[in-house]
C-alpha cells in the first residue's frame, strides 16, 4: 500500500477509502474507455471528507479525479496517472428546497431524474435531461455542461446552475453564486470537467411545470427532408421544447425493443414536443404540423395520453442501448453544426461510414444541430476499431468545416483533447491555460483532460508569447 493511501486511511477510515485493486478496478473506466487504476478511491459522506482528502493528495503530490456515475462518453472521469478518484454516490441528497423562488441546493451525487421526481409535487422540475438522466449525477452534468433533448428551449446546465460549493487546490471550501457581484465564477466552473476544483454542492434553478405538454411524431422519407423541416420550423420563429430526429436504422432498433409506436418503414422520424398553455400548445402543433407536411412529412400524429408520451421519450432516450440488437459495440460521436447544414452533414456522415465499411445510425437533437452518429463495430476486429477512430475524426473535421464544433454536451475529456486545436487557436488555448493556472496551479485536478497532449497550460502560454 502506498504512503498516500495509508495517510487517507488513517485520516478517514476504511468506510470511505478504498485501496484494494479489486475495488479500485471499478473506477478505472467509464462509458468511453479504460485507463489506469487509481492509487485510492474515496466515497465521501460530506464535503469535509472531500476537503481532507484533497489536502492530503496535494501534500503527497497525487492527482485528484472527481467522478459521478461513470456515464461519461469522453473518458473524463477516468484516472490517467493513478492518484485519487472521488466518487459521489453517497452524497446524493437534496439539502434545501426553496419552492417560492424555484431553487434547490443539492449534493453532486444526486441522480438527475431523482431531482425532478422529488420536486414534481410542488409543481416544478429540473430542465436539463441528458439521455442518461436515469443514472447520471448532477455533479457530472455540471462537469460536462450537459444538455439533453430539451435544451433547445430550456438551455444546458450553465443556464440552470446558480451557485456552487467546491474544494480548491489547497483543500479549502469555496462558494460561488450568480447573486454575488463580480466575475461569474459559477459559469467558469460549469463545463470545466473537474479540472478547476471538486464540486461538493450545487444550487440549481427549477422551472414551473407547464400547463400542457404534447408529443408528436412525424414520418419522413429520409433524414434530409426531416432536417429541412426542422430548419423551416425554427426559421418560422417556432421554438418547441424539443425537436429530435432518428433515422431508419435507429427507429427500427428502438421500435423492436420498446414497441413505442414509431411509424414502420419511415426513412426518418421527427419527435416534437410542445409545452405551455393549452391554447398555445394546440396552435403550436397546428403550425408545426403544416410546416412538416410542406417539407414532405408522410404522416403526423400526437400521443394520446401521458403513458404514450412517456413511452415515445423512453424509446428515444434508449436509442443507444437498442443498438445492441445490431452490433456488439458502438462509438457515439457528439458534434454540432448550424441547423441549416443538417441535410448536408447527414450526407457527409453517410459517405464517411460507407468509406470505412461501418454501419451508422443517426439520432440527434435536431433543434440545436447537436449530432450523435453511432458508428457500429466489433471491438474484436482490429480493422473495425481503427475504422471507427478514423471515421470519428473525419466526422468532427467535417462538422468544423461547416461552421460547427466538436462537442455539444459530452465534454472533451480524454477522447477529444487532440482535436481541440482544430477549433481553438494557440492563443485561445493559452487563455484557457491561464484560467486553469489560477484555480489549479499544480494541474492536479483531472490531469490529461481537455487540453491536447504536449500542450500543457504552461507550454501553450510560452508558445503563445513566442508567436506574439
CATH topology annotation of the largest domain: Uridine Diphospho-n-acetylenolpyruvylglucosamine Reductase, domain 3
Distance between the termini: 48 Å
Class computed from helices, strands and strand pairing:
alpha+beta
What is the CATH architecture descriptor of the largest domain? 2-Layer Sandwich
CATH class of the largest domain: Alpha Beta
Sequence stretches where pLDDT stays below 50 over 5 or more residues: 456-468
Structure description:
This protein is of the alpha+beta class and 468 residues long. It folds into five domains: 3-87, Uridine Diphospho-n-acetylenolpyruvylglucosamine Reductase, domain 2, CATH 3.30.43; 94-208, Uridine Diphospho-n-acetylenolpyruvylglucosamine Reductase, domain 3; 212-320, Alpha-Beta Plaits (2-Layer Sandwich); 327-401, 2-Layer Sandwich (Alpha-Beta Plaits), CATH 3.30.70; 424-467, no CATH class. The chain has helices at residues 3-12, 21-24, 47-60, 112-119, 138-144, 151-154, 185-189, 223-235, 248-258, 278-294, 306-317, 319-322, 342-355, 382-401, 426-439, 457-467; strands at residues 17-18, 40-42, 64-67, 84-87, 94-98, 103-106, 124-125, 161-167, 173-177, 198-205, 207-208, 212-220, 242-247, 268-276, 299-302, 329-332, 335-336, 360-365, 370-371, 373-377. The strands form five sheets. Strands 15-12-14-13-18-20-16 form a seven-stranded antiparallel β-sheet, sandwiched between helices. Strand 8 and strand 9 form a beta hairpin. Helix 9 packs across helix 11 (306-317). The longest helix is centred in the C-terminal third of the chain and has 20 residues, at 382-401. The protein is globular and about 65 Å long. The model is unreliable at 456-468 (pLDDT under 50).
Amino acid at each position: 500500500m502506498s504512503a498516500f493511501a495509508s495517510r487517507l486511511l488513517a485520516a478517514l477510515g476504511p468506510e470511505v477509502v478504498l485501496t484494494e485493486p479489486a475495488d479500485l478496478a471499478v473506477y478505472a473506466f467509464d462509458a468511453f474507455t479504460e485507463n489506469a487504476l487509481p492509487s485510492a478511491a474515496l466515497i465521501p459522506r460530506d464535503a469535509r471528507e472531500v476537503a481532507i482528502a484533497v489536502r492530503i493528495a496535494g501534500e503527497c503530490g497525487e492527482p485528484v479525479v472527481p467522478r459521478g456515475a461513470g456515464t461519461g462518453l469522453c473518458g473524463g472521469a477516468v484516472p490517467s496517472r493513478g492518484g485519487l478518484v472521488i466518487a459521489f454516490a453517497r452524497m446524493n441528497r437534496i439539502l434545501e428546497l426553496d419552492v417560492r423562488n424555484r431553487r434547490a441546493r443539492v449534493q453532486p451525487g444526486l441522480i438527475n431524474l431523482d431531482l425532478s421526481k422529488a420536486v414534481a409535487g410542488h409543481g416544478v422540475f429540473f430542465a436539463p435531461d441528458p439521455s442518461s438522466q436515469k443514472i447520471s449525477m448532477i455533479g457530472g452534468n455540471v462537469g460536462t455542461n450537459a444538455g439533453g433533448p430539451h435544451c433547445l428551449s430550456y438551455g444546458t446546465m450553465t443556464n440552470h446552475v446558480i451557485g456552487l460549493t467546491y474544494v480548491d487546490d489547497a483543500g479549502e471550501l469555496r462558494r460561488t453564486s450568480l447573486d454575488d457581484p463580480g466575475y461569474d465564477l459559477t459559469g467558469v466552473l460549469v463545463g470545466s470537467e473537474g479540472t478547476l476544483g471538486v464540486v461538493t454542492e450545487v444550487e440549481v434553478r427549477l422551472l414551473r411545470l407547464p400547463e400542457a405538454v404534447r408529443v408528436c411524431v412525424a414520418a419522413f422519407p429520409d433524414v434530409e427532408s426531416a432536417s429541412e423541416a426542422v430548419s423551416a420550423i425554427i426559421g418560422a420563429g417556432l421554438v418547441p421544447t424539443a425537436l429530435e430526429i432518428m433515422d431508419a436504422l435507429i427507429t427500427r432498433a428502438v421500435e423492436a425493443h420498446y414497441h413505442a409506436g414509431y411509424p414502420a418503414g419511415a426513412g426518418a422520424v421527427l419527435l416534437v414536443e410542445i409545452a405551455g398553455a393549452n391554447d398555445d400548445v394546440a396552435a403550436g402543433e397546428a403550425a408545426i404540423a403544416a410546416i412538416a407536411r410542406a417539407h414532405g412529412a408522410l404522416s403526423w400524429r400526437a400521443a394520446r395520453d401521458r403513458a404514450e408520451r412517456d413511452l415515445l421519450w423512453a424509446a428515444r432516450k434508449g436509442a443507444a442501448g437498442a443498438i445492441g440488437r445490431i452490433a456488439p459495440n458502438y462509438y457515439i460521436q457528439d458534434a454540432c453544426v448550424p441547423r441549416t447544414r443538417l441535410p448536408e452533414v447527414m450526407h457527409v456522415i453517410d459517405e464517411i461510414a460507407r468509406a470505412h465499411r461501418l454501419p451508422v445510425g443517426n439520432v440527434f437533437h435536431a433543434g440545436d444541430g447537436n449530432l450523435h452518429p453511432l458508428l457500429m463495430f466489433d471491438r474484436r476486429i482490429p480493422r473495425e476499431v481503427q475504422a471507427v477512430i478514423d471515421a470519428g475524426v473525419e466526422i468532427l473535421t467535417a462538422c468544423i468545416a461547416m461552421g460547427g464544433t466538436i462537442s455539444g454536451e459530452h465534454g472533451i475529456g480524454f477522447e477529444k483533447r487532440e482535436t481541440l486545436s482544430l477549433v481553438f487557436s494557440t492563443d485561445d488555448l493559452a487563455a484557457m491555460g491561464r484560467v486553469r493556472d489560477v484555480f489549479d496551479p499544480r494541474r492536479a485536478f483531472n490531469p490529461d483532460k481537455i487540453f491536447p497532449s504536449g500542450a500543457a497550460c504552461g507550454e501553450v502560454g510560452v508558445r503563445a508569447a513566442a508567436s506574439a
